[in-house]
Batch of 2 targets.
Target 1
Amino acid sequence: MQEFIKKNIEVQAVQYDGMPESLEELNNLGLQYKLGEDSSITIITSRGEVTGEIGDYILLSITGEFEICNRDKFLKLYSEKKDEEPVQPVIQSEIKTEELVQKEDEITSEPSKKNNFSFFPNLNFITACIELIMIVLLPLIMNFVVKKSIKTTVENIYQEEIQEESNNLLNQTKIEAKALIDQAKKDAVLEADEAFKKEMERLTNERVKK
């Protein structure tokens, strides 16, 4: 926790940056707060709920009450406390003047808070963008997956048909080849029988002639 001085008035302040370290410092001070979806922070003061943005300072005033101060205004009004810088006693009139100035500054600077830190992304906007992307891309992804699945299935079926046709053709070739071999064997046996008969007739005729 750093200490700052405004016109010799010492206050304790924490700059809210949305990080766990700054939240831990606020917890150590006993501050009760709630965080918004857009990373804003809301505290309860005597004037009701006050909301700050990332970069704002949350200070504990000398009255013992927490306040939220815009970063630019805070840096104009306060400077970091130095060890050698004396701290003057605070009188009641200075307290009232500080509170009046703070209220006036809050009224005039409230519209500019969001502009000062508008470069921080809005979580709702990011979520909406992600949802929009998913709405657009999801059908395309599903269409690609379905087409890929169908193509793969068709290719598998085609390969199975080719394999089955090849097996049928091979089996048919084997059957035809076996039939040809069997027929060739039969033809060879018939030719051998015919040649044997002719040879026997020739020998018989030669004996008769003798």
Target 2
Amino acid sequence: MKKIVFILVFITGFTTIGQELESITKKGNSQREKLTAEQRVELQTKRMTLELDLNSKQQTELKKVLLTQAKKREEKQNELKEKRAENKALSADEKFELQNEMLDNQIAFKAEMKKILTPEQFTKWESKMAQNKEKMKSRPKNMKRDNRSRK
């Protein structure tokens, strides 16, 4: 009898801790969602200014580029959310078009960054982007899946 009570208390404790951790992580996600595209662009510009030592002209040009990119991304995400809500799966051609468009946007963004930044700043920016890409690759795959399912 004592063993059964102990096991029940033990299971209840783990369940409670799990629920508290889940609510904490959800609170973190909701705070991130409260930022507007303009606010995110402002923060990103300031981070890049600190990292790359941008002048005021570069900052204003960068804000414009980042804002247009952020708005395009939001539109595309909303479009995909609507399709997902309708339970419409993307066909192979649609996936190809989506990936092709994404790569075209990345190429255009890189060209814009090359125009805005000096050669030294551009090299530093590219190395930082490569580091971020490596960090994302090294993240556990289950973590990526978990983050998608919470939204």
